Amino acid sequence: MKFDLKKRYCFYFNELSMIPRGSGDEKKACEWVAEFAKQNNLYCHQDSVGNTVIRKPGSKGHENEPYLMIQAHLDMITEKDPGIVHDFKKDPLDLYEEDGYLKARGTTLGADDGVGVAYMMAILEDVNLVHSPLECVFTVQEETGLVGAMKMKPRDILSRRCISLDGGGETTAMSCAAGGIKGEIRKKLIWKPADRRMQAYTIEVSGLLGGHSGVVIGEGRGNAIRILARVLNDMKQNGLKIQLAELNGGRGDNMIPSDAEALILCTEKESSAVKKTVSRQLKQIRDEFADSDSGIQIRIRKAALPKEVLDNDSYASMLAMLLLLPNGVEAVSIPLEGLPVTSNNLGRIVLPQDGNMILYFRIRSLLQSAMDDVLSRVCTAAEAFDAKVSITTQYPGWNYQKVSVLRDHFQKLVKEIYHHDIEIEGTHGGNETGIWSSLHPETDIICIGSIEENIHTTKEKLYLEAFDREYKLLCRLIEMCAE
Ligand SMILES: [Zn+2]
After folding, report:
1. How far apart (Å, rounded) are the C-alpha atoms in residues 385 and 314?
2. CA 431 to centroid of ligand 1, rounded, Å
3. Is 379 helix (H, G, I), strand (E, B) or coil?
């Protein structure tokens, strides 16, 4: 039995697993954490959404040192297997051990980020640990877009050094995370009746890999919306008088679109040139994306004639805008070889949407200034074609810090215990560390300890030996931070 409840972090993980804590439903978990602080005579502050800060004075002789923040999120992803009866609003998780792993029967395990929560509680109640004043931050609604942490104010955090426990790995230090701007571009369209003598065709781009833009945008994958716009533009450049009735593709701002479809009209005379353009483009695009999207298809098939098509000017300006908007990776990191620093993803287009066009995009960058620059170019391109941009959400990034005392401590410890160097990685996705960095830009941050596997799925599991090792490593790191 490795999941031994005599170990306090196992005890707290087990307790936490009995409390419902899907994102937005953390109330009971927040009460449990506040009660823990009360029992242990610790300062505790909870804000209106439930973010909880617990502070503990430094151990003897370390009372006057600066605060050290440790941080994890209380909420979890709530997934269950088909056929499993489980109410995430009230039922405890059904934990069990198998082959050295801790798992939850039929559901997510919540080790993301329950591991971090359990570690913080075990550390807070440990009276033997040597440490600086500690500031443990338990956030809520992380999994729905860093919603809880975004509500925190600079005055809520006293620390200027932070160990985040929601990324990296056992010996991997996550050292930067991208911020994001999620937005929409709306363009009013003018329509006219379709000429009944024309022929209608559907052009469909499909078979691309797509994927999450915060994870795979650096892998050179094609964007189906952009490819479709290119095919239509090729027709335009060759003098074909195509008309457009529909253009749809993609699933959301943060997904690279893997398919897109257009409904076009052309004269009977032009139809063979239209088909030739499709096959010429298919050949070129297959060559260009042979290494990233080997399954690309562009198909054309006869369709029913629609009632209306876009007026020529509306179509021309919509197409030009699609071609000119920034899309894909803009810059890659030099210190973190190849990691995308800045990108934009044109993720989804709907046309018509109440007679107009709507295009969803997501800008990401480690640097706020770079995000602002991409946004200003998105706005410039949109304005040039009479479209309007609105921002629905934005969150800050955490840029790579060349000098980090925390990272140096971590490197020294890993070398001593594991006899190898740490790995340094970054993410192009969002992380709460971006918010800590924006609240106090001088904060030294390291993000470590994410040891659970298959997160966000019902196959989520926690390797128990690593659970033990990582706790010891974290305690040593905290001791090292006490001067
Ligand atoms: Zn997490």
Report:
1. 9
2. 8
3. helix
Provide the residue ranges of all domains of the chain, joining segments of one domain with +. Answer: 8-178+398-481, 180-395
**What is the distance in A from the centroid of ligand 1 to the CA of 139?**
11
**What would the DSSP string read from start to end of 299-355?**
EEEEEPPPSEEE-HHHHHHHHHHHHHS--EEEEE-TTTTT-EEEEEEEEEEEEEETT
CATH class of the domain whose range is 180-395: alpha beta
Q: Say how many Å lie between the CA of residue 217 and the centre of ligand 1.
A: 21
Q: Are 339 and 331 in contact (CB under 8 A)?
A: no
Provide the whole-model pTM: 0.92
Residue 77 alpha carbon to ligand 1 centre in Å: 9
Tell me the residues surrounding ligand 1 (ion) with CB < 5 Å: 112-113, 166
Output the CA 189–ligand 1 centroid distance in Å: 42
CA of 166 to the centre of ligand 1 (A): 5
CA 140 to ligand 1 center in whole angstroms: 11
* 482 Cβ contact list (under 8 Å, min separation 6): 58, 59, 62, 65, 130, 131, 132
Per-residue pLDDT of 98-130, as tens digits, reads: 999 999 999 999 999 999 999 999 999 999 999
**pLDDT score, position 1:** 63
Phi, psi (5° rounding) for residue 178?
-80, 145
Q: Going by CATH, does the domain composed of 8-178+398-481 fall within 3.40.630.10?
A: yes
Ligand 1 centroid to 115 CA: how many Å?
10
Backbone φ and ψ of 143, nearest 5° = -70, -15
Confidence (pLDDT) at 483: 78
Round to whole Å and give the CA distance between 212 and 262: 23
Residues of the chain with pLDDT under 70: 1
